[in-house]
Amino acid sequence: MKIKAAVVDEKGADFKIRDDVELAPMGPDDLQVHMVASGICHSDEALRIGDAVIGYPIVLGHEGSGIVEKVGPEVTQFKPGDHVVLSFYACGNCKNCLKGIPTQCLNYAHNNLSGTRPDGSAHFTENGKPVADMFDQSSFTTTTVVRERNAVKVDKDLDLRKLGPLGCGYVTGSGTVLNTLKPKPGDTIAVTGTGAVGLAAMMAGKISGCTKVIAIDIVDSRLELAKELGATDVVNSKTEDPVAAVKKLTGGLGVDWAVDTTGVKAVMEDTIQMLAQGGTTATIAVTPHHIDVDTWNDLCVNDKKIVGVNMGDSIPQIDVPRLIEFYKQGMFDFDKTEKFYQFDQINEANADSRSGKTIKPVLIIDKDYVPGK
């Protein structure tokens, strides 16, 4: 079937919405999903500009939400009419998937970042030529086909327009704290970068009972929002030394945990220096930059640790509903970071994301959708 999709034709090109993209037919364990909305993530931008490469032309988008239209004969967990949030695809059969760590799926790169569907077929074509996909999802479309494992069922009384980013940005930041670092009540945490991922990590630190939740950024308005969402302290690293500020706020000790979401070399290195002895920093940005580490003083003598985390070590079918429950209880107000744009405003929305003007742009793909219906 032909659908409307936002296509990037070559490295660095703008999105072009076209209505002649052919969607692949459904497989036995597939869902056909009518897209309601999709968040724009910095990972989409990394692929658009070529910092991470799948291939071109490509249909991006991996924070989709929508309504199931059809299901394949082997689908057991979904039916037409179900409301879903879309996330990454894990095979479910490899050693790591069977251990319950789908973000470490041995086939993760092939399934999500090869530009094709997991079986190697083209997800989309245009004029008979393959168009690459992302996350076996490509949510910058009016309709998509995904595997059953891509989808998370959500209650129909929730506003689907808000929920898509739970499938990547919010689950990545929160999962890094809740699933990987696992701070205890009374611990301290610092988060560098207060975009969607950073604010999610910060809120998760608050939920975990950290008594110091320090948000670090260079934009005062974002730091004000961080305080509203639960930061105990904020630091503008444009006007003060963030390492010195964190040490001062923690009685000279440093924090037990740090999360960097910026991917900036100097900032990532700062998170190591602001750690207390025995502390751990998680670097979770999609970035081409490398860091320098003092293996003797930092890693050995001070027993500090640096960890990488993919997608918050999450199991979307568990973590997304958990975040929704936190949201219902007023503990995870992720929607305060969002701003809606119409689908044909995708280039404006992406530019606002890139500049920092908007923390989490959300594209409204179905403008006729009514929440709760």
From TrEMBL:
Question: What Enzyme Commission number(s) apply to this enzyme?
Answer: 1.1.1.90
Q: Which residues form the signal peptide?
A: none
GO BP field:
formaldehyde catabolic process
Which parts of the sequence belong to the Enoyl reductase (ER) domain? 12-363
MF terms from GO for this chain are: aryl-alcohol dehydrogenase (NAD+) activity; S-(hydroxymethyl)glutathione dehydrogenase [NAD(P)+] activity; zinc ion binding
Q: Which UniProt keywords are listed?
A: Metal-binding, NAD, Oxidoreductase, Zinc
**GO CC terms for this protein?**
cytosol
The family database entries (Pfam families) matched by this protein are listed as: ADH_N, ADH_zinc_N
Top enzyme class: oxidoreductase
Matching entries from SMART domains are given as: PKS_ER
Q: Which cofactor does it need?
A: Zn(2+)
What the record says about family reads: Belongs to the zinc-containing alcohol dehydrogenase family.
Protein name (database record): GroES-like protein
Recorded source organism is Lacticaseibacillus rhamnosus (strain LMS2-1)
